[in-house]
Amino acid sequence: MSKEVNLLAVLEKLKTEKPEVAMAINNLRTTIINNSALDQKTNALVGIGIAVAIKDKNALAGHIEIAKQSGASKEEIESCILMATPAIGVPAVLEALSITWE
């Protein structure tokens, strides 16, 4: 799958097409967050690392916004992205940093 997909748009359509499935996905996300031993900022920083690793620009932008709203500093966000360098390589990390700096 090389085509870039707007997952938020797909999720919105899923709410119309298959509302029970969309609700189950939302419930899973809510359950995981509510049962996390991590605070919201740390959850968002972990999400940034995962989004960078799977190269999901939409998720990365969303987690960056949540991290900022939760009090994460620019340096903390950049550190999460830079930590991925050995695993995913310099080009992918540079692309992720460009999203951070938008």
If classified by CATH, what would the architecture of the largest domain be? Up-down Bundle
Question: Strand percentage, roughly?
Answer: under 5%
Query: How large is the count of helical segments?
Result: 7
Classified in CATH, the superfamily of the largest domain is AhpD-like
CATH topology of the largest domain: AhpD-like
Spans with pLDDT under 50 lasting ≥5 residues?
A: none
Describe this structure in words.
The chain is 77% helix and 0% strand. With 102 residues, it is mainly α. The protein folds into 2 domains: 1-35, no CATH class; 39-102, AhpD-like (Up-down Bundle). Helix 3 packs antiparallel against helix 4 and helix 5 (74-82) packs antiparallel against helix 7 (90-100). The chain is globular and about 40 Å long. The two termini are 26 Å apart. The relative contact order is 0.11.
What would the keywords be for this entry?
102 residues; mainly alpha; AhpD-like; 2 domains; 7 helices
Q: What is shown here, in short?
A:
With 102 residues, the protein is an all-alpha fold. Helix content is 77%, strand content 0%. It has two domains: 1-35, no CATH class; 39-102, AhpD-like.
